[in-house]
Amino acid sequence: MMLTNFIYAAMNRAKYEILDEGIFYGEIPDCQGVWSSGKTLEECRENLQDALEGWIILGLRLGHQLPILEDINLNIENEKQPQRH
Fold first, then answer.
1. What is the pTM of this model?
2. The CATH number of the domain where 28 resides is what?
3. What stretch of H or E contains 35?
4. Is the per-residue pLDDT at 79 higher than 80?
């Protein structure tokens, strides 16, 4: 549920505009590099959510620090384990 809530919070922060060619462009400013385009606003929104989901998965896999949105923290805190000798 936490992941779903994060996606919902991020999508609520999305900004959309229509480019000169009539193409819709969307981005999520809090999620650097997450953007999309589409022939319709709905297509753009769907593409943006797909891009966001891929960005989250890759970020978690690579250990990137993800933004905290509406107190939803997806980051995995890596505590240093005591070393065994």
1. 0.85
2. 3.30.160.250
3. strand 35-38
4. no
